[in-house]
Amino acid sequence: MTEPAVWTRGKPALLLAGSGRWDQRLVATLRLDFDVRTASADERAPQAIVLFSSAPGYRAELADVRRHSAAPLVLVLEKADVTQRVTALEEGADDVLCVPFETCELLARVRAVMRRVVRPMPSVLRVADLELDLEAGGVRRGGRPILLSRTEFALLAALARRGGDVVSHERLAVEVWGSPRGVTATTLHTFMSYLRGKIEDPSRTRLLRTVRGVGYALSAG
Questions:
Q1: Domain boundaries, the chain
Q2: CA atoms within 13 A on the CB side of 146
Q3: Which long-range contacts (CB under 8 A, 24 or more apart) does 89-96 make?
Q4: How far is Cα 61 from Cα 59, in angstroms, rounded to an integer?
Q5: Parallel, antiparallel, or unpaired for β 144-146 and 138-141?
Q6: What is the largest CA-CA distance in the chain?
Q7: CATH number of 124-218, picked from 1.20.1440.60, 3.40.50.720, 1.10.10.10, 1.10.1330.10
Q8: DSSP character for 19?
């Protein structure tokens, strides 16, 4: 099976650490959103940390990580009771997630702890003369309202948030349909054709690009 292309430019550095286990499928999914590193592989300062550990040894591992970094940290724990989870939060974890867990929940928790220290995404995104109001769900181009379906709007927002970077088929499937296998390439292409037909105008700059075999990008360049 061909590995999906992983685009790292502009992605936040995510450090995976600890004595707990993480599988390669989890790492592959995290790499769609993050520049994933391990404790031994790179010295780049992380923008977020996922620490995999178990009770009671998590306290020493958490303290060791905190001696080196104050980055937002999600602690993934095996066999932890309420008292241990509360202690972890009091001793330096920004959030605690227990095994077993769904990958989508871990992603959501990492994003949440990052939002506490990183400037939040603006509610209105602009690409050239295209404007998306994320709160109201509205889209305009050149001041003209554009009516999109919920799926079309979700796809457009996913692309606009990436600031012109190429977004892979798998990443779009996760964000809009909830799973890397949530939609076929043919169906995704069909939705993109609908979207292109609504937001593009022959008299204006082309915004929606297709990168064959990889994904899509929304940019004015």
A1: 13-115, 124-218
A2: 24
A3: 91/59, 91/62, 91/63, 92/62, 92/63, 92/65, 92/66, 93/51, 93/62
A4: 6
A5: antiparallel
A6: 64
A7: 1.10.10.10
A8: S
Q: What's the mean pLDDT when you consider all of the chain?
A: 84
State the fold for domain 13-115: Rossmann fold (3.40.50)
Rounded to whole angstroms, how far apart are CA atoms 128 and 220?
Answer: 6
Per-residue pLDDT of the chain (221 residues; tens, 9 = 90+): 333 333 334 578 899 998 877 888 888 888 888 888 876 544 557 889 999 998 778 888 998 888 778 889 999 998 788 888 888 898 889 999 998 888 889 999 999 998 876 555 578 888 999 999 988 889 999 999 999 999 999 999 989 887 788 888 888 888 888 777 788 989 999 999 999 999 998 888 899 999 988 899 998 86
Place of tokens 């867990």: 101
DSSP assigned state of 100: S
Overall residue count recorded for the chain in this entry: 221
